[in-house]
């Protein structure tokens, strides 16, 4: 036979508060509320900073920024600037893909031994992308949301590339 002390169960039941429906509810500590709010703010801010590619055209270099990913390429180090329809199959080292966006640092499957990192800043995967090769073997794929802006950026990069190639 098991004897249960009823005063212990009464204390446990008394320590829980009951809401209007007679259901037991626990009050959440303020610390966890703060943690949830900070987590939401961080998630929303990361979404906003990765929302689009930010392009900065300097007199001597081209800068791309998208969230945590940043690339600065001097015009003198550009080897080629091309338009491509598709990016090759690659292994993602870090980054993300969401809907039409593809951003991060990747590595080509065939180039997995050399460990060359490829930066991808694609806002619209279905449009043409600019493929830039710099420092002999490093690659960047980029396009912007608006295809006209991508074409204008391509023309600017081609012009700068030709200026550097042809001495005055």
Can you walk me through this structure?
Strands 6-10-11-9-8-7 form a six-stranded mixed β-sheet, covered by helices on one side. A three-stranded antiparallel β-sheet has the order 3-4-5, with no helix packed on it. Strands 1-2 form a two-stranded antiparallel sheet. The model has no long low-confidence stretch (mean pLDDT 82). The protein has three helices and eleven strands; from the N terminus they run H-E-E-H-E-E-E-E-E-E-E-E-E-H. The chain is an alpha+beta fold and 168 residues long. It is 29% helix and 36% strand. Strand 4 (61-66) and strand 5 (69-74) form a beta hairpin. The protein starts with 5 loop residues before the first helix and ends with a helix.
Can you give keywords for this protein?
168 residues; alpha+beta; 36% strand
